[in-house]
């Protein structure tokens, strides 16, 4: 796998221990205090243990936490945009001491890992919300969870993984980073690029001025050219920005009422290409989200990103979206065809 780019931070951290060490931890855990993790915490623990959060080897201490909020970097300078922390209540924290080993368990009581507690600290939640989510408004679900549900104390320390959480869905897709890299090597892929959600449109001021002047403006073609901010200014980077998400983001930024996505079909279909295919004339955001959750209706990389982008646009304040093909745009705008999606 020498031809692959190195993992983020330089080393892939797989925190799962071998069988002998797992047996030792299980035996010792009789004396450990325990924490039952919620779904969010289980996801973080799984990504830590599997190496998805490399180069992290555990939950962040305060120095790293502060550096991430201030500079989107760990204390050692490694780029890291969001704090990976383990929150607990005041009462749970009161029963723990630095230096202890803490069993991390799923809701059924199975021990998945052990936290070697190095630090206990209190986060500045308002500062964290502003840094991570760009707002302290509780209407944002991330802010609401952080401010109203997450514990007021953070635990930090190295994690030893005993076993990954069990999953019974999409098992063929649940590869660890190490397994994913092995598959890339087997396929001979030299570079795999990210497809991040758009965060900013650099030419937005010019786009707004053109629109205000009455000019028909063609922009964010193909999703746009991805760039990142550096100390030396903007720099191109290896990534692919999805054109549908870019269009929805632009529509939000210019406060458009309507987002029309032109594609290869006249309407959106449920169970597309299957015997029970059903064309859809209208649907709400709630219905669209349910169809996405069911995972059987919209093709990956085709209709699915279009529906996801429309959901984001409407949840960000848009009033309506239409999906149709080029030859039917006029009729769709008159309400005669196409799939019309509303909040």
Describe the structure using short key phrases:
2 domains, 19% strand, alpha+beta, 33% helix, Sulfate adenylyltransferase, six-stranded mixed sheet, 343 residues
Polypeptide structure, described:
The protein is an alpha+beta fold. It folds into 2 domains: 8-179, Roll (Sulfate adenylyltransferase); 204-342, Carbamate kinase. The chain has 12 helices and 14 strands. It has helices spanning 19-28, 39-50, 62-71, 90-94, 125-133, 141-148, 177-187, 204-212, 243-253, 285-294, 303-315, 329-333; strands at 34-36, 58-59, 86-88, 101-105, 111-121, 153-161, 227-230, 233-236, 258-262, 268-270, 278-280, 282-284, 320-324, 339-342. The strands form 4 sheets. Strands 1, 2, 3, 4, 5 and 6 form a 6-stranded mixed beta sheet that branches. It is globular. The termini are far apart.
